[in-house]
Structure formats: C-alpha cells, structure tokens
Amino acid sequence: PEMSSPSGRERRIVTQNKKMLELIKFVENISYSKSTVLIMGDTGTGKEMFARHIHQMSPRAQKPFMAVNCAALPEGLLETELFGHEKGAFTGAIDRKDGKFELANKGTILLDEVTEMSLPLQAKLLRVLQEHEIDKVGGRTSIPVDVRVVATTNRDIKKRIRENQFREDLYYRLNVIPLKLIPLRDRVDDIQTLAEHFIEKHSKGLNKNISNIANETVELLKKYRWPGNVRELENIIERATLICQENTLLPSHLFFDEEEIQIEKTRPLAKFRGTIYDMEKELIAQTLEEVNGNKTKAADSLGISIRTLRNKLASYKNPVEN
User: Fold this and answer.
1) What's the rounded Cα separation, in Å, for the pair 210 and 200?
2) Which residue(s) pair with 84 in the sheet?
3) Chain centroid to CA 88: how far?
4) What is the pLDDT of residues 29-55, one digit of tens each?
5) Which 8-state DSSP code applies to residue 137?
6) Which of 3, 132, 288, 316 sits most deeply, having the most CB atoms within 10 A of its CB?
7) Long-range contacts for 264-272 (Cβ within 8 Å, ≥24 apart)?
C-alpha cells in the first residue's frame, strides 16, 4: 500500500512498512483535534511531510499552513518572523509586519527544529500556547490567535532539558501528542518502493525514460546505513537518474563509496550459539575480514588497543587448557 498526502507541492509519504502504516493511521486519527503535536526523528525522516499530512487531514486543511525553521534565523529575526512587529518597533521597521502565527490563524503552524529556539523566545512561545494570543514586537495589545501547533526536533529533547537549553514546561505543552518517526535503516523493506518512486519522480523532471532498477542496485541500497534517511536516498536517486543513460538504474550510477556500505556478515552474531569466548573469536575474525586483515583498523573498530587484539589473536593460536 502507498499513502499519498495531497498538497500543493505533491508531497507524498510512500511506504509499505507496517510500523510506518501504523504511524500514518495514528496521525489520521489525531488530525481532527487541536492538540499540539511533537514530531521527533532523525534528519531526513520526513518530519515536515508528516506535519503537512496532519494539516491536510484536519478540519483546518483549507486554512493556511505556515512553516518556520527555528534553526535558520537569529533570535531577533525569529521573534518578528513568529509574532510580527509594529511600525517603528526597531530601526528598519518601516512598516507593520504580521508574523507567521497571525498568518496561520485558523490553520496550522510548523515550528521546525523547535529545540534550537533561544530560552527567552521559548518563554514567549509558552505564553502563546497557554493564552492563545501573541504580542507583536513593539505592540501594546495582545492579539488572539487560533492556531494548531506542530513542532519538530531531531535532537534528544530530554538531554536539552537536562542541559538547561530547553524549558521543561514548554516540552510538556508541545508533547501533548508525541510522534517518533522511524529511520530508514529500520524500514529496509521500503527502500525499493521509495527508490522506484524517486526514479519515476526525477525521470519526469529530467525527461528521462528509466523504467527499471537492477536487483544489484536494490541490494546495494539495502546495505547502506542511510545517515541522511529518505532525503539522502532521494538525493542519491536524483543524481543516479541524471547520470543514467539507459532505461535501468545500475549500481555504477550510484557513485557509492565502498567504505559507506555495510559489509554483509557471513555469520550473523545475533543468531550465534556458543560460548562468549567463541563469539569474541568469531567477531574478531569477521572484523579482520572486513578490513582486509588491517589489525590497526580492526582494533579501532572493535574499541580495543592493538596490543589487546594481538594478545587475543595469539591466544586463539595457542589456547590455554583449563
């Protein structure tokens, strides 16, 4: 199954992964409330796409959707971007400006990377969530607003609270409905579906006629760790589509660095049966195989000193009888 989210920019959440489909169903169930949603997840997992889907499925769908990147603007600019300012509020404030909260009235506002917001602004945001009104910079009266707030973060928000970088009371206000997105490495069954979707999308844009993806290409994509998640997969497929001159996407079109690919284990340790001594021996043997026998690299990968590694290898050659 594939879920399509209607929007002006044809953004679609494409998935067949069971957990992702459950998330989408959950999102559709909570879209009708006014409750604040906090979407957590790694960079590139589709947090903004989910925020837009919440808006599109809600009774506010025909009203504005405003997105603000809290990490992209310095504190002063972010405040006027969110709440607006009156004419003459500061040097350069030639005209009155409406902030995104006013512009999103009756609709939805997305506060992207909300954990990057400064503490003084967090206090002002908390007041907006509590009182449902905003204060323009240089304004004398509060302005009531009816806005559904969706916030996102790719940070460990509890850690930010412990470090006194994020207000705990604001966290509880935002975290009424928590949503944790799944990284691509945990939804490998979606990689082929997504790759085919992006090939079709970018083939159209580049006037290419790429209709297939080779099995070897799919296998290579499945071995990759995907630190940049779905966004990184789309970028790689877009580049591959641009390079590809045939109608089939081949591994050579991906331009992957071999070191970035997860080398398949000949014997997965998760299913290993034996003593800890045997498991350790197997892990060291696998690691050495992966780094072509380079003991320094193997020791580094295993988190032990080269001396410890040499001692262990020596003990395997001359096991001590108990």
Assistant:
1) 7
2) 98
3) 40
4) 999 999 999 999 999 999 999 999 999
5) B
6) 288
7) 264/223
